[in-house]
Amino acid sequence: MRTLNSSTRLKLDNILAATDLSPASKAALLYAIPIARRHEARLFIVHVSSSESPGNVGNAWRAAQTELMDYFMAGHFKGVRHELLVKFGDVWTVLSHLIADYGIDLIVVGTRGRTGVAKFLLGSVAERIFRQAPCPVLTIGPSISGQDPEVGPQRILVPTGFAPHSLYAVGYALWLAQELQSSSLALLHVVTDRPDAQDQERIRKERLERLHAVIALDETLPSRPECFVEFGSIPERILETTARWNPNLIVLGLHRIDEVSRTETTWARAYEIVCKAGCPVLTVRAPL
User: Fold this and answer.
1) Which end of the chain is least crowded, N or C, by CB within 10 Å?
2) Cα separation, 283 vs 236, whole angstroms
3) How far apart are CA 284 and CA 3, in angstroms?
4) Hey, is 231 helix, strand or coil?
């Protein structure tokens, strides 16, 4: 079993930070800027207003420019190619066009972490970003603590169930670890069944062997990946492992929307992790 290897071409050339000028989106921009700097990417800061009335056009531009000026004066944009885009209309419609037009490789958004599956930044629109964006999405949740946005993730946790979409997430995390050179990588597999003690140890051993087989032996990593097998609820075990291992980033592989059941279960689990994790969460989908 192999994931992506070092010869796989991934890129972060164009990054989009979506902002509604709220504290949640301001926190997300603090992460987007150093990511763009590290990867020498172009950063598009996008503010979308629903109304294009004459008065609102001027207000939207002034508010967005004022926010960027604060970052500029603080020196955050040093060495970063960036562009402010103020657009009008349906937020997801505008963003989806920008993703295609500018070849966006990563979207960065913030969430206030309100209850309910669809209570993201920008209301239900950011939930649509989370579900439908064809590129990876980095979500900055409300429970993050002790994280320095200027420092790249030194510890990356990747939950995997061995399905193609989760193995792609392992490959993406491997690429990040190699790019950052000093990152440690951990793989987590959660078994949702409740076997007896004897079967549990047998299953743990078998799943650990599968986890170790995921990373190609010829991959160059700063350290050997750690592997964990846990039993129980997937969100609970991921959050528990996050608290114990203390990663700077979680990488989740998600189904593409047309592959997913119409129930909210999968998305509710991912949303719970985003809202409660003490670090940013990167969601990725394998290319078609």
Assistant:
1) C
2) 18
3) 14
4) strand
Q: What pLDDT, on the 0 to 100 scale, is given for residue 21?
A: 83
Distance CA 10, CA 172 (A): 8
Render pLDDT for 119-174 as a digit per residue (tens, 0 to 9).
Answer: 444 445 666 777 788 899 999 988 888 888 988 899 999 999 898 888 999 989 98
Tokens of 156: 């990356």
Cα–Cα distances (Å) from 270 to 60, 214, 232, 256, in that order, read 32, 22, 16, 13
Residue 153: DSSP 8-state: P
Amino acid in position 252: L
Rounded CA-CA distance 148/127 in Å is: 25
DSSP states of 6-23: TTS-----EEEEE--SSH
DSSP codes of every residue in 71-111: HHHTTTTTT-EEEEEEEES-HHHHHHHHHHHTT--EEEEE-
Q: 50-53 long-range contacts, Cβ below 8 Å, gap at least 24?
A: 50/88, 50/89, 50/90, 50/91, 51/88, 52/88, 52/89
Asked whether the whole model's pTM tops 0.85, one would answer yes
227: Cβ contacts below 8 Å, ≥ 6 apart: 186, 187, 188, 189, 208, 211, 212
For residue 30, the number of C-alpha atoms closer than 13 Å in the C-beta half-sphere is 18
3-class DSSP state of 240: helix
The label of the residue with tokens 């949740």 reads 141
For the record, the structure tokens of 82 come out as 């960036």
Distance CA 282, CA 105 (A): 12
Identify the DSSP state of 120.
B
